[in-house]
C-alpha cells in the first residue's frame, strides 16, 4: 500500500482507495470559527506544521524502541509547542500506567469491503489494553474525528491485524504546549462507525 500525497489517495494491488479524511471532508470548504473560508496558504501551513510534529513523534517513538537518544527538537515555535504537548501527554501516561509499549507507528490500513484507506498514527499497549492513537494539531477536537478513528479501527479488524479495545484522539496545542484527549470506547466506536458508513455512501453517490 502506498499513499499519493498530491492526489491524496492510497494505492495497493492496482486498486485506488480514497482516504478516510477525503471521505469525511466530502468537498466541504474549510472555514474558521466565524464561518469564513480559510485561505489555502493557511491550510497548507497548518498542515506542514502538523506533519513536522507527527514526524518528530514517530522518530521519538522509534528512538525509544531502539534505545537511542531522543531526536533534537526543531527551532520553530509552533512545532516546538506541539512536541512539548506530546511530551506532557506521555508523562501523564507514565503516571497512570505501569506498562507502556509502542506496538506500531504509521500503520497503513484499508477496507476492501467499504473501499477506503488511511494511516493510523500509532498503536500503543497500555498495561494489558491495545489502544489506537490519533494525534491532532488542530485548534479543536472536531466531531468528525470520532468517525475517522472508527474507520481506522474497523479496517484494522477487517485486515485481521489488531483489535484495539479503545481509541484516543490526542490534540497537541501548537500555541500553549498543552494537550487534551477524547477516549472512544468500543461502544462509541461502533456508533461512530455507523455514522462513517453513511459518509461512505454519500461519497460514492
Describe this protein with a few key phrases.
5 helices; five-stranded mixed sheet; three-stranded antiparallel sheet; globular; alpha+beta; 205 residues; single chain
Describe this structure in words.
With 205 residues, the protein is of the alpha+beta class. It contains five helices and eight strands; from the N terminus they run βββαααβββαββα. It has helices at residues 20-25, 40-66, 77-96, 144-158, 186-204; strands at 2-4, 9-12, 15-18, 100-111, 116-126, 129-136, 166-172, 179-185. The strands form two sheets. It has a five-stranded mixed β-sheet with strand order 4-5-6-7-8, sandwiched between helices. A three-stranded antiparallel β-sheet has the order 1-2-3. α2 (40-66) crosses α3 (77-96). The radius of gyration is 17 Å and the shape is globular. It starts with a strand and ends with a helix. Mean pLDDT is 88; it is low at 27-32.
Summarize the model shown.
With 205 residues, this protein is an alpha+beta fold. Helix content is 42%, strand content 27%.
Please give the structural blueprint.
Layout: E1 2-4, E2 9-12, E3 15-18, H1 20-25, H2 40-66, H3 77-96, E4 100-111, E5 116-126, E6 129-136, H4 144-158, E7 166-172, E8 179-185, H5 186-204
Amino acid at each position: 500500500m502506498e499513499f499519493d500525497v498530491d492526489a491524496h489517495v492510497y494505492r495497493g494491488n492496482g486498486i485506488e482507495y480514497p482516504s478516510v479524511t477525503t471521505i469525511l471532508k466530502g468537498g466541504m470548504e474549510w472555514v474558521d470559527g466565524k464561518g469564513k473560508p480559510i485561505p489555502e496558504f493557511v491550510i497548507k501551513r497548518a498542515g506542514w506544521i502538523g506533519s513536522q510534529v507527527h514526524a518528530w513523534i514517530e522518530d521519538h517513538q522509534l528512538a525509544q524502541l531502539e534505545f537511542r537518544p531522543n531526536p533534537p527538537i526543531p527551532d520553530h515555535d509552533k512545532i516546538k509547542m506541539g512536541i512539548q504537548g506530546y511530551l506532557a501527554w506521555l508523562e501523564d501516561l507514565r503516571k497512570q500506567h505501569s506498562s507502556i509499549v509502542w506496538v506500531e507507528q504509521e500503520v497503513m490500513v484499508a477496507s476492501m469491503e467499504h473501499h477506503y484507506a488511511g494511516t493510523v498514527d500509532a498503536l500503543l499497549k497500555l498495561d494489558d489494553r491495545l489502544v489506537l492513537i490519533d494525534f491532532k494539531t488542530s485548534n479543536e477536537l472536531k466531531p468528525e474525528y470520532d468517525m475517522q478513528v472508527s474507520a481506522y479501527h474497523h479496517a484494522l479488524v477487517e485486515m485481521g491485524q489488531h483489535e484495539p479495545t479503545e481509541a484516543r484522539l490526542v490534540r497537541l496545542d501548537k500555541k500553549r504546549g498543552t494537550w487534551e484527549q477524547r477516549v472512544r470506547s468500543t461502544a462509541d466506536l461502533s456508533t461512530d462507525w455507523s455514522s462513517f458508513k453513511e459518509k461512505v455512501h454519500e461519497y460514492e453517490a
